[in-house]
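Lab notebook, design round three. We kept the backbone fixed and only want residue identities now. Task for the bench partner: fill in a sequence for the structure below.
Input structure tokens:
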């Protein structure tokens, strides 16, 4: 697993496009979200998102990177993000969602992208990924490679909901990683029992058209070049 991560870091540093790192199998691909207790309880009971507290018109961001999810949610301790959910989507559903997205640059100096035919209301951002295995100042350390975030709302939120295969609560695992990171000394590894429970994330190729892949920086092109100009995170492997 570690050799695979090293190879992906090299690809991200030297390559001309981005790559999705995710846990996946024949049935589907895993994404993560953190919600308040009310939304999480409904999702676990009904195996879909909904209930009075869930607002489909509000953009919600899904993340295939567990490390980035832990960074964003404070290991599941931030208000309104106390419950971390592991959500499996069908491969086709994931591809259909991406096909309705456009890339949004985090570089404020870049002009806003024009909407192209076939795009929906979804958003894709690429942010420096976060390391499950090492902490820096008590948060998952920043990586060279970038992790995808996918923003959905409205009709796309419904498509996301319809693509769900299963929902699990991994809040306890998030807390365990946070506890281990806070106790971790420099260059030390995580406990074996915790390592055994961490997701194994590998390169994932969504089943999208070449046009969509290029539009989202998953193929060489103008968008991928703009991300290269934006730069990378710290040099960690």
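Proposed sequence:
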């Amino acid at each position: 697993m570690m050799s695979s991560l090293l190879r992906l870091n090299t690809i991200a540093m030297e390559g001309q496009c981005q790559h999705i790192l995710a846990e996946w199998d024949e049935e589907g691909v895993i994404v993560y979200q953190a919600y308040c207790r009310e939304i999480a309880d409904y999702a676990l009971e009904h195996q879909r998102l909904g209930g009075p507290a869930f607002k489909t018109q509000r953009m919600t961001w899904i993340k295939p990177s567990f490390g980035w999810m832990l960074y964003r949610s404070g290991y599941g301790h931030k208000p309104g993000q106390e419950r971390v959910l592991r959500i499996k989507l069908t491969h086709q559903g994931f591809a259909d969602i991406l096909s309705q997205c456009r890339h949004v640059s985090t570089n404020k100096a870049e002009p806003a992208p024009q909407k192209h035919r076939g795009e929906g209301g979804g958003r894709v951002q690429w942010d420096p990924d976060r390391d499950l295995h090492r902490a820096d100042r008590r948060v998952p350390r920043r990586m060279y490679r970038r992790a995808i975030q996918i923003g959905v709302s409205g009709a796309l939120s419904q498509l996301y909901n319809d693509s769900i295969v299963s929902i699990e609560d991994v809040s306890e695992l998030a807390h365990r990683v946070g506890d281990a990171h806070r106790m971790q000394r420099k260059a030390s590894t995580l406990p074996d029992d915790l390592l055994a429970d961490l997701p194994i994330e590998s390169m994932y190729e969504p089943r999208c058209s070449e046009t969509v892949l290029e539009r989202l920086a998953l193929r060489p092109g103008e968008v991928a070049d703009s991300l290269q100009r934006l730069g990378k995170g710290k040099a960690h492997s």
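Keep this in mind before ordering anything: Residues 57 and 147 are 24 Å apart (CA to CA).
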